[in-house]
Specification:
globular; two-stranded antiparallel sheet; 13 helices; mainly alpha; 4% strand; 5 strands; three-stranded antiparallel beta sheet
Length: 424
């Protein structure tokens, strides 16, 4: 071999390597993509819908509301003028409580139809249907209106010193909020939790006005509510199937063919499999106590999968926070019943079971530890340790630099405890 040939051999070899390696890497990536794209998607189990379904009664009730614009304005007028969603006109007069009560009477058929639904099981409509987009639910807005009507009804009963009747109206709001989210994904869960919050905020005002028998019945109602609450893991499972159904709809809408190589359908299938693996990890995390703080799974790759992926820890916080507030409310009613019968609050929460509560509810921000309680003279401090998972001895979450109405609002990153009667 001549020296010139020898000098050319190494550049040629290096050049071949430079060309071949990217080709091999590309082939490997394509094989992985193809394997993921042609892998069959998991299929959900069949959904058995109740018949009759209470959800249908709730939709009908929403359609029976008269003058929704007037109701929306009444709700806005419960806020300060500067916080309203419309411009307050000069000399504008707010609706009075008696006018709100007359409006509730006009809408008695809507509330009657709503309560008829309480006689039946409820499940959110089946969203596991293959379609290239999410189904829209315009009734969600009417559901919030129905909750406001119930709140106005309770307000009038309280004005007439019928505090037990007012409490029942507010309990109906919580029952309604729990029902509309049952069998639904994350969006219905958020709607249901918002409705529950409307009832819960009203219930906080009633406990001090109840006698022993009424307070005991209210504690019983809240225990039923705790048992009826849809576990967050079930919501995430439904979220998984709903989004997979949408991705399958995209795949069928743009199928694989020779003119569409490799086909947008394959990309939808690829995203769907990535999304399914991500959601399985989220679901596994949701089975763990909030206090265990499992690490967030890596977001799924792919534009479609990334868009559909929920913010797992945020959604889980909303669910756990709602449960903590409901648990606290159950204990508050039991404490009121105890005080009315014994003339003072108990030294420990254990004295409430089993006469006032079947069992003391756990703080959902802990691993099976009860809510914290401390008697302070003729008052008490009741609290959950909150999302920071630290027992601050009953020091409430406090945001003094925010607007007054939001000062004691708790969010996922709040520091401090969720104290009954202060935080929301």
């Amino acid at each position: 071999m001549s020296r010139s040939e020898s000098n050319l051999r190494w550049p040629i070899t290096i050049g071949c390597i430079v060309l071949i390696v990217p080709i091999i890497v590309a082939l490997v990536l394509f094989v992985r993509f193809a394997q993921n794209s042609f892998k069959p998607l998991p299929q959900p189990s069949k959904v058995i819908m109740p018949n009759p379904n209470a959800y249908d009664f709730y939709v009908q009730a929403g359609k029976l509301i008269t003058d929704t614009e007037k109701l929306d304005k009444m709700v806005e007028q419960m806020k300060k003028p500067e916080e309203r969603s419309y411009t307050v006109q000069p000399n504008e007069r707010d609706y009075t409580s008696s006018e709100r009560y007359e409006f509730v009477k006009q809408n008695a058929p809507a509330l009657k139809k709503l309560r008829e639904g309480f006689e039946y099981d409820c499940r959110h409509p089946n969203d596991r249907i293959v379609a290239p987009s999410f189904k829209q639910y315009p009734e969600y807005k009417d559901f919030r209106r129905l909750a406001r009507l119930l709140a106005f009804e309770g307000e009038q009963k309280a004005a007439n010193n019928d505090w037990a009747g007012a409490s029942q109206s507010y309990f109906d709001i919580i029952r309604f909020g729990q029902d509309v989210q049952r069998g639904g994904a994350i969006l219905p869960m958020l709607v249901g939790r918002a409705i529950q919050n409307i009832g819960r905020r009203q219930l906080y005002t009633t406990s001090d006005h109840l006698n022993a028998k009424e307070a005991k019945k209210s504690a019983e109602e809240m225990e039923k509510a705790l048992a009826r609450q849809t576990p967050f893991v079930e919501t995430l499972i439904e979220e998984k199937w709903v989004c997979l159904a949408m991705l399958q709809g995209l795949e069928k809408q743009v199928p694989y063919n020779k003119q569409n190589l490799p086909g947008l359908g394959l990309f939808a299938r690829h995203s769907a499999n990535n999304y399914a693996r991500y959601m399985d990890k989220c679901i596994e995390n949701a089975r763990q106590p909030y206090a265990s703080k499992p690490p967030e799974p890596e977001p799924p790759k792919g534009i479609l999968a990334g868009i559909l992926a929920p913010v797992g820890s945020k959604a889980m916080y909303v669910a756990v926070s709602n449960d903590a507030h409901n648990a606290s409310l159950a204990v508050q009613f039991a404490l009121q019943a105890y005080k009315m019968e014994h003339g003072q609050y108990p030294e420990t929460l254990n004295e409430l079971a089993p006469n006032y509560l079947i069992k003391i509810p756990n703080d959902p921000f802990t691993v099976k530890r009860p809510l914290q309680y401390r008697k302070t003279g003729d008052k008490y401090i009741l609290y959950s340790i909150g999302p920071d998972l630290t027992d601050d001895g009953g020091k409430p979450v406090d945001n003094p630099k925010t607007e007054p109405d939001k000062r004691y609002v708790v969010d996922k990153d709040s520091k401090g405890d969720i104290v009954a009667g202060i935080n929301r």
